[in-house]
Write a structure and sequence with these properties.
It comes from Gemmata algarum. This is DUF4760 domain-containing protein. Keywords: Membrane, Transmembrane, Transmembrane helix. The protein is rod-shaped. The longest helix has 53 residues. It has 173 residues and is mostly helical. It has one domain. It is built from 6 helices and no strands.
Length: 173
């Protein structure tokens, strides 16, 4: 199930479940079917099971998102000061130290991992949008932008591109 379909289903599963149940029950009671009350009870049991399953799935996905969110933010926190130091350097032609290059590699790998999980529907759109806006702030820095351009040509970041970052930054839902 794709990301948007899952979001829609998780938001509206109560209405969908009761709507489907109502239609099936009306069909059973409208037709000349023996044991219609037993069938109605079975349908209600199936609907209750579906609702339980969806709630459990929704809870598990929320817990997964929380674990990912915490992990990503912890990793970013460890990189933040080093990224700020790179941003404070003047000029486009500054050569990065090995440590600075490693910091940028770690940061872009983190961004790519976030993108991968977002693409798989495991990261909420609001969180992804906020992260993209943060990435764009760093990409305004000429040193970091130049490094990202070099990295982007390797196509080794799960399809994460500047265009994807810009598209993510404007998502509102």
């Amino acid at each position: 199930m794709n990301h948007r379909t899952r979001q829609f289903f998780f938001r509206h599963y109560w209405w969908l479940a009761f709507g489907c149940a109502g239609l099936v029950i009306c069909g059973v009671h409208g037709a000349n079917v023996e044991k219609r009350w037993e069938m109605t009870a079975a349908i209600i049991g199936v609907i209750a099971s579906v609702i339980y399953f969806v709630q459990k799935q929704k809870l598990e996905e929320t817990q997964l998102f929380e674990r990912l969110f915490v992990r990503f933010n912890e990793q970013y926190s460890r990189l933040h000061e080093q990224l700020q130091q790179i941003c404070r350097q003047d000029g486009e032609e500054i050569l990065l130290s090995a440590q600075q290059a490693e910091t940028l590699d770690k940061y872009f790998n983190l961004c790519a991992e976030e993108f991968l999980f977002y693409s798989e529907g495991r990261i909420l759109t609001k969180a992804w949008s906020a992260w993209c806006r943060g990435m764009l702030i760093y990409l305004q820095n000429p040193i970091i932008a130049r490094w990202w351009q070099q990295q982007e040509t390797t196509n080794s970041h799960y399809g994460l591109t500047r265009a994807e970052i810009e598209r993510g930054a404007i998502k509102l839902t």
